[in-house]
Amino acid sequence: MKKKKALNTYYIAVPREYDQFLALILVRDKNNKDIVPVRIQDNSVQAQYNATIYKVDLTHYVESNQEEQLIITETYFNRMSALPKKITIFEDQNVEIYDNPHFFSPYPTEKSQTTYKLASSPIFYTEEDATAKGGNIEYGPYRNDGAFTRSKIRLHFENTRPFPVFKNVTRVIEVSHWGNIAIEDFYKLANEGAELTGEYNKVDFNKYTQHTGKNSLKNLKAKLPYNSWGVYYKDEVGNISTSRAFRDSASNSVDMTIEPRFALLGGWKSNFYIGYNLPAKYTLFVEKADPTNYYLRQNSGLIFKGIMAEEFTIKVILPEGATEINYQFPFPLNEVSEEKSFSYFDFEGRPTFVFKIKNVVDYHDQTFTVNYKFSQNSIIREPLM
Question: Which H or E element spans position 314?
């Protein structure tokens, strides 16, 4: 009998109707190593099973008859929708979601069970194969499912929380060899919950009201690097004074709470800026063996946790005269481009790299590095002019 080969790949299937809402798939193996699967193009599978396939390259081989434990986390956006889509300021927000309660896989599945944890007891749920207890609904257990098994359930329940989404975030990091790193983030924020219909006034609702406009977004909490200084928060009108920040040694961060100029009800939007400075000695490093070789280390995630950004642009402006520029990110980028930025006394322009990432979630809160050469003579050129 021919011995079965050991395997080091695993495939994940996602229904095509949900794939467009998929922000991230993350696989964790038994060694607690995170693996990001790669989407593969298989038109035959897409056509036959209406599925998109992702390939996981395991860190080791799995022998025949050997078990391997994998934890698969799929992060989606815009899967829930408000129902009704518009509400008055006095009404509570309800949402609905459709899903497949089976473990959707390209492999046969011996046993599976799915639990949905809702924000409240359901208004409606598909009762077939379901057991409900409060806001928890269990489907299954299902036994001996074939590959690509699916069915459709509907859940309708109350969820009065706001649905904040950053439609676009642009971060500008300006590097100075005079001891400072200046950072400014520009945010385009939307509350994608049930849209407000009917009248709005400050008598029936304000940001301190608890019983009306429950799905409004009244404040946001951010974490800045511990050594941040010169923090500011403003919008197109100007400075916004409704913000608080303090340096928290326990969390090794500057904890910041901001309030928009007006609370964001469903369907409302707001644009704003947050800027701060960092001492260069904490993020810009020089190689001892080669004092012209520099390494800039910066965070690649959002300062607001638990909120997705549909598009995130990081623009790194290096000093004029920087050469041999390289970069390393811990995850794939959607687009990279190079341009020039100009400021006072610049001749050739400052090398600027623009990194674009889509569907940014908390996983992207990691560290990236930009490496470049910079002569000591270049730093004194502008002061001499």
Answer: strand 309-317
Structure token digits, residue 26? 């993350």
**Predicted confidence (pLDDT) per residue in 83-111, tens digit:** 999 999 999 999 999 999 999 999 999 99
Residue 321: CB atoms within 10 A of its CB come to 19
Identify which of 323, 341, 296 has the alpha carbon closest to the alpha carbon of residue 175.
296
- The H-assigned helical ranges of the chain are 16-19, 43-49, 381-384
Cα dihedral value 34, 250, 230, 183, nearest 10 = 0
Cβ-proximal residues to 181 (8 Å cutoff; 6+ apart), any chain? 173, 174, 175, 277, 278, 279, 280, 283, 284, 296, 298
Q: How many CA atoms lie within 13 A of 125 on its CB side?
A: 25
The CA distance from 188 to 12, in Å, is: 33
Task: Measure the CA–CA gap between 43 and 53, rounded to whole angstroms.
Answer: 10
Query: 361 CB contacts (<8 Å, ≥6 apart)?
Result: 23, 24, 75, 308
Q: Tell me which residue of 197, 189, 239, 195 sits closest to 218, measured CA to CA.
A: 189
Which SS3 state, helix, strand or coil, does residue 336 take?
Answer: strand
Per residue in 278-298, pLDDT (tens digit) is 999 999 999 999 999 999 999
What pLDDT, on a 0 to 100 scale, did the predictor assign at position 327?
98
Q: Mapped to the 3 state alphabet, what secondary structure does 239-267 carry?
A: ECCCEEEEEECCCCEEEEEECCCCCECCC
CA distance 27 to 36: 6
The burial class, CB within 10 Å (0-12 / 13-18 / 19+), for 31 is exposed
60 contact partners, CB below 8 Å, separation of at least 6? 8, 29
Q: How far apart are CA 310 and CA 361, in angstroms?
A: 9
Q: Please, are residues 226 and 253 in contact by the beta-carbon 8 Å criterion? A: yes
Q: Are strands 34-35 and 22-28 parallel, antiparallel or unpaired?
A: antiparallel
Q: How many residues does the chain have?
A: 385
Phi, psi of 364 (to 5 degrees): -75, 0
